Amino acid sequence: MRIAHVSYGTVYGGAPELIRADTRGFQDLGCTVSWFDIAPYFHEQPLADYLHDALHGVRPRVIPGGQTELRQRYANPDADLGPLAAKITADRPDVVVLHDPVGLVLAPALAGVAQLVWRSHIGDQAWNEWTISASQILRPALAHCASAVVHLPEYVWPEAPCPFLVSAPGIDVDSTKNRQLAPAETAQLASLLTTGLVEAGWGTDRAGRDSSERDRVFLDHGTGFLPSDTARYAVVVARWDPLKGHRLALDAFVAAAAVDPDLHLVFVGPNLHSSSRGVFHDVRNGILTAIGELPTALRQRAHLWSAVDISTDVHQAGVNLIRSRAALVMQPSLREGFGLSLTESMYRGRTSIATAVGGHRHQISPGVNGLSCAADAESLAGALTLALEQSPQLGGPARASVTERFTAQHSARRQLEHFQRAAG
């Protein structure tokens, strides 16, 4: 079977992470996979932001126009998308998977070309005025799809115009970010924790490089790196999205700091540029400001690191090392579609603390393979205190639960069987 993915961007965010994992799973099952980026053809960021927030069940930061106007945007083929639709058609796919609200805008232009499937990575635990609003806007385009795939039962639409499949996503356990690092790799990467630098020419890129050179992988924005590569730390790995709960993690760390005076807190996220969305700058800069306002002793234990280039293999290996060495991993999201960052941390065998939102609730069995709490600073501080005082050894069960349920192979097999049934 020939499967084509369409997403907004191919590097940054949860959808590209999932597509990379699914691609591995589909290829293992004998499928041919292609991937198309809609970003160069789609120029309505306010609309994308509106639908992202609304499907998460929160009031959107931007409301671009009225309901009728927005529904029309999803009801008719868009001339700007014609060249991309032609490229996809020429690829002769059997199935086209349109990811998230932006991908779905292509459905009218691709009607009749292939089996269209909407893959939504966003949802909320309960329907409210915003999720209903978003579903009404997207409904005309969804009517062109043979089916939709969502992560959780709660994300299935009432009275949907096409069948829905509930299928949890999975991670590629053999990727650089998730696989077991060799001792030599770990030794080479350890300097990242204390300097943000690594010996030049990581992996296959070392040819022609002087062994005394160093490549910068992370920036610290003045917050410093760890005092040693054996220092104890809790880590939050997430993009600078206001729904990821960075401030909750910082407030919880401050509240629980006295329990373990040697524990550091590390935030890890992508670097931002002038073209990055303003809200991401606001989140990152807000955390930097909050760290700077802490008392000196606490300020020296809180760190924010930005990746120089998240597309590189050395970055993926660096995140692997940072998770693998962490005493604890925190995922403090206010809203979450599924939470693949949590999945990856659990697979690395770390004790994880996650807020009980979205897919976190389906991954963590409290006290068995991780710790769960409400999405507020006080509850997160309580869970952090419990983890520090009792040191529960939950990493082994965490890894086992991912292997049993949340790998790319499981995800791809469920979807492929669904596509084949729909094709008759």
Describe this structure in words.
This protein has 424 residues and is α/β, with parallel strands linked by helices. The chain folds into 2 domains: 2-170 and 407-423, Rossmann fold; 183-405, Rossmann fold. The chain is 41% helix and 16% strand. Helix 3 runs parallel beside helix 7 and helix 10 crosses helix 16.
Fold blueprint:
Elements: E1 2-7, H1 14-28, E2 32-37, H2 45-55, H3 67-75, H4 82-90, E3 95-99, H5 100-104, H6 107-110, E4 115-120, H7 129-142, E5 147-150, E6 164-166, H8 183-189, H9 192-195, E7 197-199, E8 214-216, E9 218-219, E10 233-237, H10 246-256, E11 264-270, H11 278-292, H12 296-299, E12 302-307, H13 313-325, E13 328-331, H14 340-347, E14 352-355, H15 360-363, E15 371-373, H16 377-390, H17 395-405, H18 408-423
Main attributes?
single chain, 424 residues, alpha/beta, Rossmann fold, 18 helices, 15 strands
The CATH topology label of the largest domain is Rossmann fold
User: First CA to last CA: what distance?
Assistant: 13 Å
How would the global form be characterised? globular
Mean of the pLDDT scores?
Answer: 92
Biggest sheet, strands in spatial order?
9-12-11-10-13-14-15
Strand content: 15-25%
Low-confidence stretches: none
Tally of domains: 2
Helical residue percent band: 40-55%
Summarize the main sheet. 7 strands, mixed
Summing up helix and strand content along with how strands pair, one would put the structural category as alpha/beta
In DSSP terms, counting alpha (H) and pi (I) runs of 4 or more, how many helices? 18
